[in-house]
Amino acid sequence: MSDFQLSDVKRAFESSTERLPKNAAAVLVPLIERDGGVHVLFQVRAKTLRSQPGEIAFPGGRIDPGEQPREAAVRETTEELNLTEENIEVIGTLEPLVTPNRSIIYPYVGILTATDIHPSPMEVDHIFFVSLADLLAAEPIQGEMEWRIRPGKKVPTERMANRDAYLDRTYKTVEHFYEHEAYLIWGLTAKILRQMLRTLTQY
């Protein structure tokens, strides 16, 4: 292969579009007015799904090629909750989250105008609502979780500086657990929820 010239490198990147991680995803925190107040909609994933069956989540999923995160959040919400785009008003963004498997989730906050919601049974087991006032007043359980990283067989650890620090590394994080009736909201859903609640209290 001949040497690259700077002009070749420049042309290669000029012709590229803005790239997102291959497994990037987007979610929407759905707000809805009911019973005289604002509520947050949560969904319980269908038990037939391969990924995270039965877990509590916000509507969302993987970003398709050529799609922007906001578009993906709206599309996934329409598909999972059987809504139209006209039923969804995106009102803000939250900070992207990096998951343990290094994917990125782009969270948005939106208002649902539909009053009668019948989610897709292929993706959603059922939905439930929690008053925003109750969530703001809640004191979540806090617990420490550990993530352990070990190098695979092909990692050339013998050539790495500070080798011992990477042979068996443990990361500790504090997780928050929100209780509502029989439901326990935690993990990435709780992280996104907590970020939204912090935004509201700092307003």
Structure summary:
With 203 residues, the protein is an alpha+beta fold.
Which helices and strands appear, and what pairs or packs with what?
Layout: H1 6-14, E1 25-34, E2 37-45, E3 56-57, E4 60-62, H2 69-81, E5 88-93, E6 97-98, E7 104-112, E8 124-131, H3 132-137, E9 141-149, H4 164-167, E10 169-180, E11 183-185, H5 187-201
Parallel strand pairs: 1-7
Antiparallel strand pairs: 1-2, 1-4, 2-3, 2-8, 5-7, 6-7, 9-10, 10-11
Characterize the structure shown.
The chain contains 5 helices and 11 strands. The protein has 203 residues and is α+β, with helices and mostly antiparallel strands. A hairpin with a 5-residue loop joins strand 6 and strand 7. The mean pLDDT is 90. Helices cover 23% and strands 36% of the residues. The longest helix is centred in the C-terminal third of the chain and has 15 residues, at 187-201. The strands form 2 sheets. Strands 1, 2, 3, 4, 5, 6, 7 and 8 form an 8-stranded mixed sheet that branches. Strands 9-10-11 form a 3-stranded antiparallel sheet. The termini are far apart. The chain has helices spanning 6-14, 69-81, 132-137, 164-167, 187-201, and strands spanning 25-34, 37-45, 56-57, 60-62, 88-93, 97-98, 104-112, 124-131, 141-149, 169-180, 183-185.
Distance between the termini: 57 Å
Report the radius of gyration as a whole number of Å. 21 Å
**Beta-strand residue fraction:** 35-45%
Summed up, the helix count is 5
> Could you say which overall geometry the principal axes of the C-alpha atoms support?
globular
Low-confidence stretches: none
The proportion of residues forming helix, as a percent range, comes to 10-25%
Q: Say how many strands there are.
A: 11
The sequence of SSEs as H and E is: HEEEEHEEEEHEHEEH
Strand count, sense and barrel status of the largest sheet are: 8 strands, mixed
Provide the structure class: alpha+beta
Mean pLDDT: 90
